[in-house]
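Z., the sequence and structure:
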Amino acid sequence: MSKMINVALPKGRLGKKVYDMFEAAGYECPEIREDNRKLIFENQEKGIRYFWVKPSDVTIYVERGAADVGIAGKDILLEYEPDVYELLDLEMGKCRMAVAAPRDYRDNPERTLHVATKFPNIARDYYARENRDIDIINLHGSIELAPVVGLSDVIVDIVETGKTLKENDLEVFETVAPISARFIANKASFRFKTKEIEAIQSALSASVAARRGGRK
């Protein structure tokens, strides 16, 4: 008898798209489509149990074993470096982590660079590779405001369309890393449920390949 696999899905639009992939791959759970406030859904016949969690919490559930697998953004994986296996790039939720600043900004490498961000570890690692002296300003709200009012020189943040940057007279100067949704697994779960997890990985990989082919 196959082992039950616990899947942490990120709440929101991305999580719903990811569930569509699981459903198409044969891991459906009909009650997840119902209009309710439940957080846990399971299909014992398919050996699958889903639960909704805050996107930034997915890695915590997976790393600590409450979930066997989950879907997390590459930004979260880079920022917190959880001890999990990254098994597959789902090529969904694509965007990029970037450095942005006012259009007329010119960097002076002789002075400390003031960097506002929600991702201090990613920013610190990036500028360490650049051998740049920086001052991290850790914010939680509208990062774009920081350079406009003089709180920072630049920002390090996720950029999707770039519309918000343009509306605030900012532009991307450098790309730090491409970001997309990743299929991750708990290390102990992968050891003891290898067959089941690899079957899901294979099915999702086929779905990614089919979608990629459809875009050509």
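The mean pLDDT is 94. The first strand starts at residue 5 and ends at 10.

Let me know what you think.
H.
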